[in-house]
Amino acid sequence: MSKNRKTTLVTASALATAVLLSGCGLFGGEEKKQIDPPQNASYLEESEMEMVEESVGAETETKTETEGTEEAVETTVPTELYLIDKNGYVVSQTMDLPKTEGVAKQALEYLVENGPVSQLLPNDFRAVLPADTEMTVNVKDGTATVDFSNEFATYKEEDEQRILESVTWTLTQFDAIDKVKIQLNGKELDSMPVGGTPIGDELTRADGINLNTTGAVDITNTSPVTVYYIGGEAENYYYVPVTKRVNNDGVNEIEATINELAAGPGHGTGLLSQFQSDVKLLADPKIEDGKVTLDFNESIYGSFEEKLVSEHVLNTLVLSLTEQKGIESVAVTVNGEAGLKTEEGADLTEPVTRPQKVNTGSF
After folding, report:
1. Any idea of the CA torsion for 182, 186, 190, 196, to the nearest 10 degrees?
2. Which part of the chain is the GerMN domain (predicted)?
3. Who contacts 93 (Cβ-Cβ below 8 Å, separation ≥6)?
4. Which residues contact 88 (CB under 8 A, 6 or more apart)?
5. Confidence of residue 17 (pLDDT cuts 50, 70, 90)
6. Residues with Cβ within 8 Å of residue 192, at least 6 apart in sequence
């Protein structure tokens, strides 16, 4: 997993997140200078004094309002919460949570039904953990050990795998956490308490999310790839990660990912892909310093006449490929030519990087 996709656990500084994949960055205003009253105020006439006092008062009021705004920004931190959508998929939703030193524990608290997330839930989403569940989180040497209260064991069996995925992916967004262990009331679990799903020694993102094994007859001869499809509805789309099993038939992981994007999520999944089914690479992917360069045929275009690339095609491509180790940005060419444009009119003159946070409500 690329480190540039994680959030610092210790500092938990409030970052302003870019809403487009092609423009991640930090934003901040200039620091306001201290305004001192005129030193010669006692020599001014009364009318002039009143004007000075009004001016100083107005600037002080503006400064106070600005400081209040800056303080509000600094007291929250964007955090990915992996919730369950109406189709049963585990999907990240980025929300501004109160800044705290215990950001890992807080993130899990916001996964609890009827907890603090209740007023923030997007339409058609629900929390993951049973109501009244409490927990402690101990992070050491890259592993977060989560000790849940007894209420944890009251979930519905059909949510068991979703809970494992949600807890794992929510916690591993932080720099200090790569692995997760689960305990129940102080006792380490090797399987889940309701349905008995094996846990093993530790949970990682390598275990996948929203697992789809359709078409994989022999699991032992396959490898996992996580691709992003489009969920939700028009005007309210979001990106859903799905881990699929692909045959080990000599196709590298990058090509396998593109093949799965082109193949689409499948009928009856409630998900979409804007990739054309005949999208192909015209040359082997080139990787250098974290950047992968991909040369496509013209089927990558969403509009053949105007030769424009769909924003959703670009977003799902970048999100999917940056899940792979060592890939931090994606450059796209068509028939060997660069200088493409998106359907929104943005120039693709630079490699596209992954945003700090996904599904901010701005896509």
Report:
1. -90
2. 104-193, 254-343
3. 80, 81, 83, 122, 125, 238, 359, 361
4. 158, 162
5. very low
6. 160, 163, 164, 199
Tens of pLDDT, residue by residue over 75-86, are 999 999 999 999
Q: Report which of 6, 14, 19, 106 is spatially closest to residue 362, judged by C-alpha positions.
A: 19
User: Tokens 């990106």 identify what position?
Assistant: 239
Q: What is the pLDDT of residue 35?
A: 29
Say if residues 108 and 80 touch (Cβ distance below 8 Å). Answer: no
- At residue 186, φ and ψ (nearest 5 deg) are 90, -5
| 195/157 Cα distance (integer angstroms) | 6
| pLDDT (average), residues 117-131 | 96
DSSP characters over 288-301: ETTEEEEEE-GGG-
| CA–CA gap between residue 113 and residue 69 (Å, rounded) | 31
Q: Are 339 and 333 in contact (CB under 8 A)?
A: no
Closest CA to 190 of 199, 179, 202, 180: 199
Q: Compute the distance between CA of residue 174 and CA of residue 78 in angstroms, rounded to an integer.
A: 12
Average pLDDT, the chain: 83
Residues 228 and 275: their CA atoms lie apart, in Å, by 11
User: Of the ranges 8-12, 187-191, 347-351, which one carries the lowest mean pLDDT score?
Assistant: 8-12
d(CA 245, CA 81): 25
**Contact between residue 197 and residue 164 where contact means Cβ atoms under 8 Å apart:** yes
Half-sphere exposure of 130 (CA within 13 A, CB side): 15
